[in-house]
Amino acid sequence: MINAVLAEYVENKKMTDFLSPILSQNNKFITDIDMLKDYGIKWDTDTYPAIKQVIKKFPFKITPYYLSLAASNKLNNDPILLQCLPDAREIINKHNFCNDPLHEDFTHSPVPKLIRRYPDRAVIIATNKCAVFCRHCDRKRFWNNGNMDINKKELEEIVLYLRARPEIRDVIISGGDPLMLAPDVLEEILWQIQRIKTIDIIRIGSRLPVTMPMRITKELCTMIAQYGPVWLNTQFNSPMELTRDAAVACNNLLMAGIPVNNQSVLIKGVNDSLETMKKLLRGLLKIKVRPYYLFHCEPVDGVEHLRTPVIKGLEIISSLYSTCSGLGIPRYVVDVPSGAGKVPIDSNYIVDIKPGTITLKTPGGATIHYPDQDQRYKYYKIE
After folding, report:
1. Contact 206/178 with Cβ under 8 angstroms?
2. pLDDT tens digits, 190-212
3. Are residues 198 and 125 in the same domain?
4. To the nearest whole number, what is the mean pLDDT of the chain?
5. When comparing pLDDT for 68 and 2, which is higher?
6. Is the peptide bond before 229 cis (omega within 30 degrees of 0)?
7. Helix (H, G, I), strand (E, B), or coil: what is residue 231?
8. What is the pLDDT of residues 128-155, one digit of tens each?
9. Contacts of 136 (CB under 8 A, 6+ apart)
């Protein structure tokens, strides 16, 4: 049976009947779309073959807990289902988006499993495992790669690289989701990185507080906190994700001395309205999670149908300043392709806006022509 905390939550939430079978399932991952029929979720006869094609390219995976957050079985309208269920539009790539627009794998990977796009920061790809395969993910390319857990040799090479470059002060452990690793494997990574005297802080990127909060135990948090200062960045995208269980998970981290930041993604149909964003940000402050970034959804193969125009995000952020505490307003950014880094979307960095294209100046001074909605993706030229 699903653990007692989740069972009580679902009972209190007065879930609709279509999700009641969750209570009779083991708390395991759902990876077969045919299993969703038990929850009243199914595609019509014409769409089903396309969905099967989608999951060959971009597999499906979800936790019973996260599925329980859905308010209905309306595939194209529910903010939870839009984030986690395969969509036939994922294999329609009319704008020729690539699977690695940030050029992480080759241009910015000096040693295997390490990404370096900034002078003072580096990202370790610790695994490709996730509790939920979010359909807006910018690393969907990893899902069909088999086991990508970092091994001893790869970790040794990363440590040697970092030791030789004292200008790197900040290491982000990412993936996939590093909290999906066995605790002893995660602890080994933390221990090895902490031993590098020039590293000031470690950050962990994890969506488990949202998708599988019962895994964020006090014991796990205590172990992680030994290797501080450690920060955790998570990703709440919808107010529907702000459950009691998620709040408990975040509180476990905070009580262990691990600050929690939120990095939302602006997603069409999920949070691309002022009222939804206000509710999300205010809810985050209530559980003491700092809204950090609002990322514009990246031009990644399989994600096009979830992207909004940049101007939509600008309108939301501009309106928030008069309706929401400054403490709760995230920085709206685009992570520009070819590895030029994150660019804040505000008047200091916008050079020009035209239909289909927004021209940005990066903090480093480069000019980027960033394709907005309905702009054909060819390449990104840095002048």
Report:
1. yes
2. 999 999 999 999 999 999 999 99
3. yes
4. 88
5. 68
6. yes
7. strand
8. 999 999 999 999 999 999 999 999 999 9
9. 83, 265, 267, 297, 303, 306
Of 163, 54, 180, which is closest to residue 127 (Cα–Cα)? 180
SS3 195: coil
Contacts of residue 292, Cβ cutoff 8 Å, sequence gap at least 6: 233, 261, 262, 263, 330, 331
Range of the domain at 216: 114-371
pLDDT-derived band of residue 373, with 50, 70 and 90 as boundaries? low
Q: Which one-letter amino acid corresponds to residue 383?
A: E
Contact (Cβ atoms closer than 8 angstroms) between residue 115 and residue 161: no
Task: Determine the residue type at 17.
Answer: D
- Of 57, 91, 125, the position where a domain reaches its end is 91
Encoding tokens for residue 112? 């295997």
Angle separating helix axes 244-255 and 4-13, nearest 10 degrees? 140
Which CATH number does the domain housing residue 298 bear? 3.20.20.70
Give the count of domains, the chain: 2
- Of 381, 335, 378, 341, nearest to 97 (Cα)? 378
Q: Is residue 130 part of a domain?
A: yes
Residue 93 has phi, psi (to 5 degrees) of: -110, 65
User: Both tokens of residue 344?
Assistant: 């804040």
For the entire predicted model, the pTM comes to 0.87
Q: Are strands 290-296 and 331-336 parallel, antiparallel or unpaired?
A: parallel
Where does the pLDDT of residue 9 fall: very low under 50, low under 70, confident under 90, or very high at 90 and above?
A: very low
Residues 232 and 349 reside in one and the same domain:
yes
Task: Give residue-wise pLDDT tens across range 215-258.
Answer: 999 999 999 999 989 999 999 999 999 999 999 999 999 999 99
Is the domain of 86 the same as that of 118? no
Q: How far apart are CA 328 and CA 317, in angstroms?
A: 11
Q: Hey, what are 269's tokens?
A: 């149909």
Phi-psi region of 98 (alpha: psi -120 to 50; beta: other; left: phi over 0): beta
